[in-house]
Specification:
Structural class: mainly alpha
Largest sheet: none
Number of strands: 0
Order of helices and strands: HHHHHHHHHHHHHHHH
Number of domains: 2
CATH superfamily of the largest domain: TRAP transporter T-component
Shape: globular
CATH topology of the largest domain: Serine Threonine Protein Phosphatase 5, Tetratricopeptide repeat
Length: 290
Amino acid sequence: MRKPVFLPVLLIVLLTGLTACGQMVSSAKKDFAEDLSATIQRHDDPETIRQALPAYLVLVDSMVRGDDTNVDLLLSAARLYGSYASVFVDSAERKKKLAKRAFTYAHRALCLRVGNENVTACNLKNASYAQFEQSLKKFSKPDAPLLFTLGSTWAGVVEANSADWNAVAELPKVKAVIQRVLQLDEGINNGDAHVYMGVMQSLLPPAMGGKPALAEKHFKKALKISKRSNLMAMLFYAEKYARLVFDRPLHDRLLKEILAADISQSPRRLVDVIAKQKAKVLLANADDYF
């Protein structure tokens, strides 16, 4: 029986077209990662996502390995790993590893974006605070999503390593990144940059250097930007601020507003469902706290 001659011809066509189609493949990977993120955000069952996401994280790793200079793909990977580590991982050691991977992807994306034009920004761990803060001024509004991903994943590393003072010492630089995001585009991610600043400003009570008044200002700004649709802003406003200053009426009012919110059409339904779950728990144990 004669062997079909079209198979080697097709193979040659595919191989010779790989270079020409490289940009198309790279774009397809980016689109897949972004579609995956959007699908996850709109899901209404956190447990399904908890069980399904690890396989997709490995898949995204493989895509990055084959296209490791794709800034958009690296940022998508950083966001997926950062979200999974912060929301679904209970093990302290796993959280550290996954948070580090998320930050590594974001940092790599930053270094690729700035190249030799802003070496200090890429060398963020070793640069002095003054040098690093100065380097942030070179970024413009189109860089806000990149900086927000860098800052949020870096905050995840600090949180996962909160017992390590070397990690905690990096918090001022994390704040500087988020502050620059706020200067460039304070409405990014439905006000989430203000939420991050609110949480960071309420980590300590006033007697130890915390700034709860400033934290409240950021939480209120996030709610104003989102027209009170950012349920995580409400949740952290209650948990991080209201509990810190022992304001029980504010605490309960915010949590009840979360529970009453209609999220049927929300583009961030997964996060909203999680916010409702956590609000229910906080409200249930409020008597023990206050």
